[in-house]
What does this fold into?
Amino acid sequence: KQEVTQIPAALSVPEGENLVLNCSFTDSAIYNLQWFRQDPGKGLTSLLLIQSSQREQTSGRLNASLDKSSGRSTLYIAASQPGDSATYLCAVLSRSGGGADGLTFGKGTHLIIQP
Amino acid sequence: EAQVTQNPRYLITVTGKKLTVTCSQNMNHEYMSWYRQDPGLGLRQIYYSMNVEVTDKGDVPEGYKVSRKEKRNFPLILESPSPNQTSLYFCASSLGVRGRGFYEQYFGPGTRLTVT
It folds into this structure.
């Protein structure tokens, strides 16, 4: 069964720093990997989607990489801002052990950017 | 505006009283799914639907029912809610999955359900 782990669970850094969030998954037979942002009490906002055949995707200050063979993805945030404070979730789309096609989520990294 | 909507956003109910949480998308997406989010457990898939009249169990389907009579709607039904179904529920949709391409999933705003 697919399992997704995110490290660190929480991170607090001063504004302006570049930072890296890590995601690992146990079954490399994924269709794609998606990074989300969740603000307290709110829904999920999709940040980046990387197909299994791709190595990275970029959107503004965000860059996500995928190494499918090693089961790893990183989300790089450049020049962090207080508005980046949120929980970041990594999710992989794969055929789970039960045969279901759906996203398997990590538990998230809770990020605080100090002004 | 392209979006996934859920209703109600907040619901407090009692054990055993049947309820339905509606989900609707206006993007003509084929794939729809329900997830629940619990502290320490993260998000887990309940049910999903590849297309109209096609539904399948996710990882935690017990105690839930779904239907997909129309492409845009995918309601979640709790026939006899119990306190362990207290959770934050999210509906999601995607243009397609598997052989039709693996597309980005869009999430609704969430429904916070409390069962007493």
In short: The interface with chain A takes residues 33, 35, 40-45, 48, 50, 56-59, 90, 92, 97-98, 102-110 of chain B (CB under 8 Å). Chain B is about 0% helix and 50% strand. Chain B has a mean pLDDT of 92. The radius of gyration of chain B is 13 Å.
